Amino acid sequence: MIEIENVTMEYPSPEGLRLRILDSITANIPSGSQLGVVGRSGSGKTTLLSLLAGLEKPTTGSIRFNGFPVSTAGESELSRYRAREVGFVYQNFQLLKHLTAQENVQVAAEIAAHANPRSASQEALDWVGLSTRLKHRPDQLSGGEQQRVSIARAIVNKPKLLLCDEPTGNLDPQSADQVFRLISSLTAELGTTLFLVTHDYALAHQLAGRIELERGQLARFQLAAEGSVT
Amino acid sequence: MRSWFWASLGREVRSSWKSLSLATLSLFLAITAMTSVLLLDSRLSQQTQRQAELLLGGDVEIQDVRLLPESLLERIQSSDKVRSRTRVTSFITLLGSAGVERPRLVETLAIDEFFPLGSSLKRTPAASFEQLLLGGVWVEKSLAETLDLRPVKTPVSNRITDKNLQALLADKRAVRIGKRIFPIVSLVENDQMRDFASFALGARIYMARESAQKNKFISAQSRIRDKLILQYAKKTNADEGKKWLQTELETFGSGSLSIKTKEDALRNAFKPARSLFLFYDAIGFAVLILLGLGCSQGISSYLSRKKSDAEILNRLGAPRTQTAALYVGNVVLLTLLAFACGVWAGHFFCHVFLLPRLNLWALGQVSESHSLGQMSGLALRFGIAGLLLTTSLVLPGALRLLGEKKISEKEEKSEEKNFYIFTKPIQKTISLARSSPDFLWILANFLLSFVISKETLLNCIIILLLTLIYVAVRLAVRAVHRFGVGSPLKLPLPLRLANSEISSRPTQSALCLMLFCLSVCLIVFLLDLRFNIESQLTAGFNMKERPNIFVLDAPPENLKTVEKILSKENAVTVLNEKITRARLESINGKDSESFLQNFEGQPEAKQNAQRLFNREQNLTSRHELSADETVVAGQFWSKSPANANLAEVSVERGIAETLRIQLGDKLVFNIQGVPVKVKVTSLRVVRWMNFRPNFLFILHPSVLMDAPYSALVAAHIQDPKGKSQALSKLFQELPGLTTIDASEFSAAANRLIQGAIDIVRTLGWILFAGALINVCLTAWTSYTLRAQHFSLYRCLGANNTVVMSACVAEFLILCVVGIGLGLAASGVLSALVAAFILNADDQLNNSFLPSVSVAATLLCIGTAAGVLTATLILKQPPLKILRQPS
Fold this sequence. Notes:
The complex is a heterodimer of chains A (230) and B (886). By secondary structure, chain A is of the alpha/beta class. Chain A is built from seven helices and ten strands. Chain A has a six-stranded mixed β-sheet, sandwiched between helices. Chain A is 34% helix and 28% strand. Chain A has helices at residues 45-53, 75-85, 101-111, 117-127, 143-155, 173-190, 201-205; strands at residues 2-12, 18-29, 34-39, 60-65, 68-69, 86-90, 161-165, 193-197, 209-214, 217-222. Chain B is an alpha+beta fold. Helix content of chain B is 56%, strand content 17%. In chain B, the strands form three sheets. A six-stranded mixed beta barrel of chain B has the order 2-3-8-5-7-6. Chain B has a six-stranded mixed beta barrel with strand order 14-16-21-18-20-19. A two-stranded antiparallel sheet of chain B has the order 11-12. Chain A binds chain B through residues 46, 49-50, 53, 55-56, 75-76, 78-84, 86, 88, 90-92, 94, 96-100, 102-103, 106-108, 110-113, 118, 139, 143, 153, 165, 172, and chain B through 409, 412-413, 481, 484-486, 488, 493, 496, 500, 503-504, 788-789, 792-802, 877-880, 882-883, 885-886.
């Protein structure tokens, strides 16, 4: 269960004012939910992901993940939380160009102090259908393949929370569809809670739940089972 | 459009000033170092040539130990091959002055009006040659100080009477030479005594040739050295002139006549100086290449980053040529500015700092003697160099900037299409140049070595060596990948991430490493060099015991008096060596003529062998070797001589090589008419840079027991007053002995060596500063990529400690490897310098403390760079960094 309680996030502006990015967000999300996060540019989608991953601390309010106080935990606890409980998929893949596909996945396993990072990375790449491209470097892979490597890296530690920041934004429609299906099927299989930020409303509609942000406020929050709106 | 362009250019320079100024500063330092070294080399080679001319006084010198035959002089005089001739005759006379009981022997020079060395003699007061013709003399300053002599108050006239002369003698303003009294018209300071070339004593008294002849100092019977110094006519070149003179001399058939050309004088006198200049040149070129490599990376990286900006401006309607000019233009301007400022600063640095360090004479007339032609040549060379360097620095980045982005899906993988108008091989070349700015810079330097420097071969070798090292370092950096992420080795996570980071930027990492390596190498080497030269100078003597008085040729009967005078002034007698004069008569039964007939080798080597064979040798005998000698072959006095009838001799290795002497060879010396047969049982290496007398031949003590000898006494007197008192007493009581005050030589040698070291040390510090700037530059240009990588690691769960440790480890690994390679390289360099410049057999002793201090400083700098970078990265939200374009 993810408990977001009255979370507000502010940044100082260059003019010395306070810019409110997120404004009093409250939501309770059961484990295993699949949510599409939509909203205009600057509505606070990426900031929400940062806060959920514990990369930034909210100005006010609190976030708890399965009882773990994400918003108040110390740096080392948060690092452990990110390494073991959270996976990230980015719009521009964020693969290390000098490493092979397998090594890119292995980095995440090594940081999480996995017992056998090599076999874990092979297994993860096998899940995403790239077992034949282990030794390829990012520049030898297509955009869709690169994003699949990125997904394999995100799930190599079997996280409880997968945060995807516009994962299909840089892909052609066909590859985007493949990647989306892969993410939703893998998270369903692993019971992982999914937050997928996208500008594509049609894609967001394919997921069971939806969070719609507008000028930092929660305009719409819908969970599949309940269909409730806050 | 024009106002748009200039406004954008201003904005661009303002927004990118940090990386651009670092690159410009790096190039500026490189050009400054190179220019100053080139100018230093140019000035000093001009000056050495001038000095060689001064040493010789003309194009060629004919010399004899007798008066030169009049018929030869007439033939030379009548020849149209010669423009001018000057005759200089040196002879030994007895000199007396007021208060000195017994006269002493001094070397005197009889000169003509156009005495060629006149300009190098500082005279106080600057009395004219007419004063010499009227019977005056110039006295060397140190001799005058010893005897408390001073110049006359009023100029000498032809009406001077004997009474006046007696009064001047009593007032110590005149000296007695032979039976005549000569007024002192000037005191002479011989600049050459302080030069690289001649630590020779030079003459002590100068008089007009006419005056010397009138007083019968020069005659066929007297012991003289007669020299004729010639300047060729314009149409006669040096080789032609030498051949003509050799033919002329052969017709006279005199064996003792010899020819010495300007080239001979230059070669013999300035060999160590030349090696030192080559060394400077090499360092300057290495600095230029390495700092330029950093700069080329910085510029290339800057222009690559500007590609997307240029595309945006193109889409907004800006002409392609103008957008290219906007980004390339400022780099070109800054590069040219750095080049111009670097040349100016190098010029200033050379004249204000470097030349005075070596010697003041180098600042003399030569620095202002560039003709218009020379200036134009210099300007052309620098112009070509500037164009070449700027092109090589800007071209790769400009090619990247001008590359057109592919937009079709099919061509997505091949990021850019370039220059479709060119044929495939040209396209490939352009592509190679674009992707390898470092190698393009090296190529430009290769071309530069033909334009700017006289030492083309040396520079090409340096370029080749540095390129090989650079390629090896780049390969090594790539190999570090094996110890990074995914490595089967269970290294700590920060170390694996650091290794991975190093291999992700092979060019920048290799560059950092090279710069660290070279600066460590040079600084440690220079510290070692300084330490070693100092220790060589003081080897065997501590500072207190370094001799400052030498008494030469003391006969055995005078030794007790010498020792008594010295001990009265609390002198520490450092040495009392017996010297026996002899001539080498034969080697393995072959006399000089038959030996030289069968001599194989270059004419120069043959000349050297002839010179060494014919000259009088100083022999000595010792039971044990001195601290400055090492036996390199054979045994220093065998315990049971195989042939008791044959005495043993130890030969210095250099002369053994010149005369082709080997172990077991039999030599015959003629000691005052008595032939002494000896067998070579050992070869020695002598460390010449000491203040001891060194000998080419050392005989077994049993051989010279009864041979006639004179002694060489070296002593140290701490108190300057006591030293001058001892010198005066020696002169008064034993005027026939030659005494030398060595303090001036020692101080001059120290000053020169210190100056030479100062120059190299300054170049080392320039390189060090350049290395730091380049490290900042590479850290700056790779910051975005590094920040993205570490932000990703943070998102993947790496905590702040891991990020900090990995960042620090990355810089530290480069530092440690750089330091290791640098120390190894300094060892190699010191061995090379020891062998080829200092002519020592062993490599320089490495001083531990300076190496550790330099290493520790660099490690601190590396750690600081790592901490600073990590702190900057950790300050920013990782997702924000990751959303930025790469």
